[in-house]
Amino acid sequence: MRHYLLHRAGLGLLVLWAAFSLSFVLLQVLPGDAVLIKFQNPDLGLSPQQIAEMRQAYGADNPLWQQYLHTLAAMLHGDFGYSVQAGVPVSQLIISNLPGTLRLALCGFLLAALLAFALAALCRLPALRSLRNLLQSLPALFISVPTFWLGIALIQLFSFQLRWIPVINPSPWQGLILPIITVAIPISAPLAQILLRSIDEVSTRPFVAVARAKGASESDVLWRHVLRNALLPVLTVAGLLLGELIAGALITETVFGLGGLGQLTQQAVNNQDVAVLQAVVVISALGFVVINLAVDLLMPLLDPRLQLLKGTP
Q1: What number of other Cβ atoms are within 10 A of residue 176's Cβ?
Q2: Concatenated DSSP letters of 225-284
Q3: Which residues, in sequence order, are CB contacts of 32 under 8 Å at separation 6+?
Q4: 119-176 confidence digits (pLDDT tens)
Q5: What values do phi and psi take at 89, rounded to 5?
Q6: Which residues lie below 8 Å from residue 253, measured CB to CB, with a gap of 6+?
Q7: Nearest CA to 167 among 188, 191, 151?
Q8: What pTM was estimated for this model as a whole?
């Protein structure tokens, strides 16, 4: 097990290094210069010599390989540099904006899981067997809806038409209702699809027939025998989706004007604030790696066969 953990941790570090390196290269080739965007403003009244000194202070004129090594070494020590536009450490901006994004992502994921399980349960009910094809087609509809369009449609329906949820000065939790739904619906689609297929596959196994032969009810067979074994592939995909959900929350925050990494990223893109964008990429990659490592550690607890494969005593 120790060897497996070291292997997975090594792969995670490799993913983080690749995300950092690729984002560094892409951000450097983008047109524009954050230092010039801010300090060439005529209202500041800075001379060309003063602007050159500011560029030197931020290391903007150093060779790319020096910038790369300096940025990499600083991030390894938890230093994300300074935001050119805000004039404060990037870590301070991340700390102040990350909780809002995490709250939206986690609540959206929980709602997505509830929607997926509810849809799977409805498809297995004998009374709704005639509607099973219709219910199974809902995930394909959910996943095809663009996130930004869904958010705008929900605002139009629940805020402007029905007037149930205010969009002007809502309470903290009122302001999260529509964004959570917007995030949850597309994420629930792949969870529901895999869960439905896994349930159908597990239902054909011999131990399910034995449980029915012993007189177990359909609900008991579903919840005690089928669903537990059907969760393994769903858990694997859930780890991937939860990592992607953090990135998907950025779009939702922009649509609803929420404070978080989404708004921070939008401002950084507009101002070519490379240090902030680099930090957002690394933080997102770190969340993706940590979540999937946690899923890998949880899998053997649900399936004892994996403990033998991974050498767990």
Answers
A1: 19
A2: IIHHHHHHHHHHHHHHHHHHHHHHHHHHHHHHT-SSHHHHHHHHHHHT-HHHHHHHHHHH
A3: 272
A4: 887 887 776 767 777 877 888 778 888 888 888 899 889 888 888 888 777 887 888 8
A5: -60, 140
A6: 100, 101, 104, 179, 259, 260, 261, 262, 263
A7: 151
A8: 0.78
